[in-house]
Fold this sequence. Notes:
By secondary structure, the protein is α/β, with parallel strands linked by helices. The chain has 2 domains: 72-218; 223-247 and 295-444, Rossmann fold (3-Layer(aba) Sandwich), CATH 3.40.50.11350. The protein has helices at 4-32, 37-41, 66-69, 92-108, 130-133, 136-142, 155-158, 173-179, 181-187, 205-218, 223-235, 249-255, 264-274, 282-290, 298-307, 328-331, 340-343, 346-350, 354-367, 378-389, 400-408, 413-430, and strands at residues 60-64, 83-88, 112-118, 149-150, 163-164, 189-192, 240-244, 315-319, 337-338, 370-373, 395-397, 440-444. The strands form 3 sheets. It has a 5-stranded parallel beta sheet, covered by helices on one side. Strand 2 (83-88), helix 4 and strand 3 form a beta-alpha-beta unit. Helix 15 crosses helix 22 (413-430), helix 19 runs parallel beside helix 20 and helix 21 packs antiparallel against helix 22.
Amino acid sequence: MKPxxxxxxxxxxPICSIFLLSFSLIIALIFLSPSSLFSELSVPSSPGVxxxxxxxxxxxxxxxxxxxxxxxxxxxxxxxxxxIRVDCYGGLNxxxxxxCDGVGIARLLNATLVLPRFEVAAYWNESxxxxxxxxxxxxxxxxxxFIQVVKELPPDLASKEPFQVDGRKRKGQFxxxxxxxxxxxxxxxxxxxxxxxxxxxxxxxxAKASLCQACYKGLRLTEVLEKKGAxxxxxxxxxxxxxHLRFEPDMVxxxxxxxxxxxxxxxxxxxxxxxxRKPWTGEAARIWRKRGKCPLTPRETAFILHxxxxxxxxxxxxxxxxxxxxxxxxxxxxxxxxxxxGLLRDEDFKTMHGxxxxxxxxxxxxxxxxxxxxYFGNMxxxxxxxxxxxxxxxxxxxxxxxxxxxxxxxxxxxxLKRELWKVHRDDFVMGIGSALPDCxxxxxx
Length: 445
């Protein structure tokens, strides 16, 4: 009679064989089935890539720093040094960035903040002010304890225009204290536009905390815009990817890049927008493009999305300005593309200004399942930072520089897709470009 352990082994072997065979068949069916999840996420033209970009495990994230999110703000001085109005220019997110900087500078100078002035610009079809876009009472409530904010000036200053200060050369803490503070003390009411390249890292914590609080917790859209944004959000099929695609005539003209293969209508629109800004030619044009200075076309964008394993049936909300060119280059590959002009009622859309349209794109983008940008502009930075603030990390910036360098090397087809996958894989895994560093700290996973 055979020992008990031998009997067990005799029965175990066929059972294990049957289990392994069944498991192998299941795995084969999963991977070979055209309707399976793995099939949808695969990139057939990129050997070895069996997932989309969002399936990768990240090794680092940027999260809000505890020193401003959790700590009690430093006590405000008993007496203010005067009043500051921040004058904001450009598109909505540029103005938002300038205003956030202005809040930090005002706190640095121990000043009382007056509601900002937004530029009235025919170019942007814009006449809305701060209160038309953002909830003023909510902002004042959220900034309580961080900085003093007033809706109205004292009677002796109410009828006066502020003394304008040139902020172009002001970058650091002592620039403002040494050159702007005397003007504030003398005139009691000043205005300025913050310089784009602020050295916020040199600000004391109480000034940076005010900036961060204003930018990420203090600015909420008005009730009307929140309602319209929610309506637009609900109309988009879920889940969806928000794609900020920049390929408008003025954008291309400003880049000074040349393109071939565009439609006659697009070329005419670009030439009309150029004015005196002529495109680079010869070797200069080649160097400029290799540096990643040229906006991606919709067709190039679709190519990169496919190389990242984004399924062709993905629902895409197009966060873009008016006049987007060559859109067929995207929709010929990704057909489920939605826009605010197509989802909102005509009467609603036609009465909107540039800021309100941008506010809706911003609202949808920060709440989308994933967000991809073809540019690293003000909106992209603000959206990425706010998504990181909310713990939403499916955010990626497409690398124009990598695309240009790889195509200049003669890569195309499967090889180009494979290399593009590697570049963006590394960016996403390392959390590169996912948030603004001023108010965020890197967190290793």
